[in-house]
Amino acid sequence: MKILGTIILALVLWMPAYSAEEAAPTPGEPDADRYARSVVGLEVTYQMWDEDRPWAKTTPQSRSGSAVLLEGSYLLTDAQMVDHATLIQLATFGRTRPVEPRIVAIDTEVNLALLQVDDPGALEGLEPIALAESTPTTGTLMMARWRRQQLEMAAARITRFEVRRGWGGGVEHAFLYMRTDMAGGGWGEPVFENGALAGVTVSQSEMLGRAVPVEILRGFIERAKAPGPYIGFPALGVMWQTNSDPAVASLLGQEGEPRGILIRQVPWGTSACGVLKPRDLLLELDGQTLDAEGYYHHPRFGRLRFGQHLAENYQLGDQIQVRVLRDRQEQELSMTLRGYPSALDLIPYHRTGQPSYVIAGGLVIRELDVPYLRTWGKDWDKNGPIGLLHYFSVSREGQAPDSRRKIILMMILPSAYNAGYQYSRDDVIDSINGRPVDSITDVVAAFNEPMDGFHVLELSPGSSRRQIVLDAAAFDSATEAILEEYGIPAALHISEQPPADGDGDCPGDF
């Protein structure tokens, strides 16, 4: 008996210890099995365009992320996950399957993508998850993903809601910020509250995650499932500043404490184009009073910037009323809501497809956009060419009918024909042969009309030189020889969605 007691005691001491909390899960503890049947992985092969060689693509690469299953065999993830994808494969229960989900809709403005699996049998064993009624404003949520064939779950403590621009355009909406225990997140991980989907992560810096809340998820899903082409979210689209200086407010005719925001510029193609004017004080947005910093009172999230009100509650084409102080008088105005895609920017933040470019006489000319600026690395906004960064900082949103893009001389492919100019690069072109150019189409047209037997390029102030002059007679033959010498397949590409050449007042998207 003494020996048996010793053995039993040893077994008791060997067994791992569990706290009472671990032994008896508290009510409401996340159901790991439930999430395991709703969270899937995505294995994506993608291929970007080479921004330094716009006629070619880069080496294919791969990325891994997460998605969540919704009713109807739909998968919800972030747009960056499937950006430039050439192959998307589904991973269920941690294992990659020979299943290729189909992209239903991508909205880079809100950084969301909806996919669908056409074969329901491929989703055997999985269960769709429901959307939460609303995003909680306090407390702890749960993030989940598959990693190394195991379900990884982590707490995500709500810290704040903040309105920011989306990843790829001008739509501003609320983001949910969370302190999470999950390392390396921000790739479409679903965020749950009591077994329902409350958000989808789109970025993470160290342990601070950022997610699109369910209020925006619901609007995206409804738009993506609607028949016909996808129609995105509305945005005001103005450039504005806070109305914090009482002297300025008084100058504009406002009495008492400053309120509303000061409109600085109304870009072409936006909701406000033709309605608001520079020096207007925007006081109300369809009944929502704006303070001097652009905040209104959201019924759940408290003080938020006004972009959330439009993104959450309206569709493109809706008419709203705005109240402004103009010429020292308050006025009620009607506005039709439009989208504000990145293509409406003078220097677009996001681009789909191949860059627009032309190679002429060895000069590689392209449209300036942020994908090109990103070739200067993570800190491109500090390390890029100062001349290009100046235009980005000062007039990124300043597109107009006669100024649709900044055209740059990206580089020169050296040859005897262009000798002496080969070190010129990253200079903004103001005109070619006396014609202002604001699209690659304009560049091609300008080269068809030489000046007295020469092609003359005028570069902007601050460039490495102010003028480039080339012999027009040898221009075409030199271009052909340079293309052959450098093995370039095509001298010209114009985007499928070139900037609109407009006579209309505000040809935006609605």
TrEMBL record:
Domain (Protease Do-like PDZ) ranges: 353-491
GO biological process, one term: proteolysis
Tree of life domain: Bacteria
Coiled-coil residues: none
Entry-linked Pfam families: PDZ_3, Trypsin_2
Secretion signal, residue range per the UniProt entry: 1-19
Keywords: Hydrolase, Protease, Serine protease, Signal
Gene3D superfamilies: 2.30.42.10, 2.40.10.120, 3.20.190.20
GO molecular function: serine-type endopeptidase activity
InterPro entries, per database record: DEGP_PDZ, DEGP_PDZ_sf, PDZ_sf, Peptidase_S1_PA
UniProt cross-references to PANTHER family, sorted A to Z: PROTEASE DO-LIKE 10, MITOCHONDRIAL-RELATED, PTHR45980
Protein name in the entry: Trypsin-like peptidase domain-containing protein
Lineage of the species this protein comes from: Bacteria, Pseudomonadati, Acidobacteriota, Candidatus Polarisedimenticolia, Candidatus Polarisedimenticolales
